[in-house]
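I'm curious: can you give me some protein's one-letter sequence along with its backbone structure tokens because I've never seen that pairing?
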Amino acid sequence: MTAKSKSTSKAKTKKTRKTPTQSPKLQSTQFQDFTPYKAKKNEEYMNPAQVDHFRAILSNWRLELMEQVDGTVTNLQEKAGALPDPNDRASQESEFGLELKTRDRERKLLRKIASALSRVEDGSYGYCEETGEEIGLRRLEARPIATLCFEAQERHEINEQHYSDMDD
């Protein structure tokens, strides 16, 4: 086989390799496996079917995050050990640090999910906390913990950017 044909076969091999699935860290802040809600014509906003849909999304997301937290604790306990090489220890501590930062973000996310589930129960879920307007089904499916409608969120971000620019 010539050098050219070897490189060609390697290129083909690279193309046919399966891509790895998402790592748990990427999945941790996302929710998956739900069927988008199909609104019927003239359907009332946040009717019982829609409320049940979002309650299921939020509950499943919370369960996914809790399972990952349990996995992290187990993982940290299993890997924790006195490694003889200082470089290995440093790498392990760095990995642990990243893992703990991720879990801290998830802990905050779990609080937001709990808050959203509370709003589902009290009937305020799906309505903007600032204006009282409908947040919208598609926005809620994209970000189930949203508390502001698109326009209010945009104003909030502009104000945040404006005030952060003043600090510079």
